[in-house]
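Re: that chain you flagged

S.,

Sorry for the slow reply, it's been a week of failed gels. I finally had a moment to sit down with the sequence you sent. For the record, here it is as I used it:
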Amino acid sequence: MSPRPVENLGRFTITHTDGLARRASLVTGHGVVQTPIFMPVGTQGSVKALAPDDLTAAGAQIILGNTYHLYLRPGDDLLARHGGLHHFANWTKPILTDSGGFQVFSLKDIRKLSEDGVEFRSHIDGSKHFFSPEKVMSIQNNIGSDIMMVLDECVGYGADYDYTAKSLELTTRWAKRCRAAHPKHKNGQLLFGITQGGFFKDLRERSLEQLTPIDFDGFAIGGLSVGESIPEMYDMLAHIAPMLPADRPRYLMGVGTPMDILTGIENGVDMFDCVLPTRNARNGTLYTSRGKVNIRRAEYREDDSPLDPDCGCYTCRTFSRAYLRHLYVAQELLSYRLNSLHNITFFLDLAAKARKAIEEGRFAKLKAHYMEVFTPGATEAA
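Prediction finished late last night. Pasting the structure tokens below so you have them in one place:
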């Protein structure tokens, strides 16, 4: 699989700023990504319930794949034989793959950490596997993603200072090994570093100081939304995000309510991902321009209005709240698709509105509007 040459690969161009918020673009091997951007999560090579044409219609520029899951099934060797995940899944736009680091955190009961890497048992069949930094680079190379992430340890909320300090040092050593295994722009793939340090600001700063000289194509903030309160998360985000290199894209990993995204943008973050839109869609929670809607509620049984009159997605253009409620209550599979299509469209539209607001110097006004719409305890969307 020989990569096509891409002019200006990795170039990150900031065109507008509004406070700390940035409007920019990033050149990848499969196209230019306009930021700020939300990236739908396709854990196993599929954004749940949605096909590539659904994602394109919703405005998706880039999606995620999960290194851990794709390694286990269908296998990265198989993906390489089929021309990589782009060809396998018929997705022609950029793909970012995480490193499996979050699974190291979430599967802590079935893994063992060492200097060499992480040994873990498959959640599918219990078989033993080992991820070293070099192995993770090899897997992501086989997947063929446009943006690869280094292997890191994501420390849970509540970890003490000494453990967190040792963990970030390990993450730094692993990051250096990832870069050594994947020289800059090898195979047309970008590589992002991940800052850690838990909820200790000095450790966050130390992590960034150690990573910046490695010359990654972008920098991510890991280890947030791991059990802390929202004020604690926002406080750490406001502290560390503006410190990330200003000339590289900044990526907040796995954090993604509408207010999380807007708060991240306000602090200079460019890229976001989260399973929230599709997971909540499958549970009947939908995001609209007037607040959240729980489509399961009996009050929508005869509601002939569109889910969101301000949304132009296929779901809102075509079906009533009454029909969407019926599909959900009847457990029809179409419910998953229509709900997911709407939620993904909402999150992508939110990012598009943020880009336009930054260009026009009114981002603070946009954020204030959504704070009113999504205030905790707000009434159901009218």
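What I noticed first: The first helix runs from residue 52 to 58.

Talk soon,
D.
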